[in-house]
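As agreed, record copied across for absentees:
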Amino acid sequence: MKFNELGILPALAGALAKEGITEPLPIQVTAIPELLTGKSAYIHSETGSGKTLAYLLPLISRLDLAVAATQIVVVAPTHELAIQIQQQTNRLAQNSGLPFRALLLIGQTSLQRQLDKLKTKPHLVIGSPGRILDLIQMKKVKMTAIKAIVVDEADRLLCGDQANAVRGVIDAAPPSRQLLFVSATEQPDALTAAEALASGLLRLRTGSNQVNRDIEHLYFICEERDKADLLRKLIRALEPERALVFVHRNNSAELVAAKMAHYKLAAANLHGCRDKLERQQAMDDFRSGRAKIMIASDLASRGLDIRGVTHVFNYDVPTLSLDYLHRAGRTGRAGVRGFAISLMTESELRLAGRYSAELGIPMTAAVVREGQVRREDEKPAGVTEPWM
């Protein structure tokens, strides 16, 4: 099936072709025809499965370009995700030649500049629910012509500290608006909250909470004090084209950054960024290849779409399997093979069994020997002593 068979505007199908995207992914085939009808829906599909285009393409196709008014609102839990959605929207506008405009509205940026840009009456506004609600209450974002509101990463926005702001944005729109909730996981609380906001909610899904099968999952056992050195050895042995290193402690990020700098391995430390400009510079360095390693917290694992991530390293391993799912989902995208690698102490080893049981994935033990990664199933014939 091709995109032009799904009912979207031909110009949008042409825009995708310019990016080398010609065949829709399963969630896009499932969602686009339904969303073109204006139905409200809860869209669930695994990370990296194409959910952003699954909702952008039908919503842009439904825009009334003759009306200079905001018609679509997209809210996201992080600035990074909001920026990614805006960038995808801008690429569609540029490559299609369609005269729609998108405006990014997030905090920690100039409010006056956003007020000035709102005077151009963008067709889409994309951003954080708090900033968008503030501008609605200031009567600067007009909601009278709204056709659709998208809540991206709905499991996080509907059940976290931004839930009230999300509901405020929805309440400001006409009752006829289409509501779309998007998530990589199925969280009962989020689904219940979404159904309370949109009766008769259509559920569109592909896959499950499982990590896709293009990812190999390895774990290495070491002492906590040896993790930084093991990570350095793994990066040398595996030579990742682009790697994400996940931490959840400040001292871990500092240790990793120092170790990478000592061995002249270019790394961007997103975890240590204190403001929007620093985060943007770290992202730009990683995307451009100036830094092949990105040190990040779980904040960066939700919705972050960076092409070409070949390896994900869990330096600090997550306790919850769903957190492992989101981290691992940063690699193995669009049918390209990826690797999720966990550095575990003996006391953390139980988590490998948890991931395997709860996510239905094989977790393979491995070691680094003589500069090479050796998996448990590669133990040489005749070796009787413990391989690990």
Notes: The radius of gyration is 22 Å. Residues 3-205 form a domain with the Rossmann fold fold (CATH 3.40.50.300).
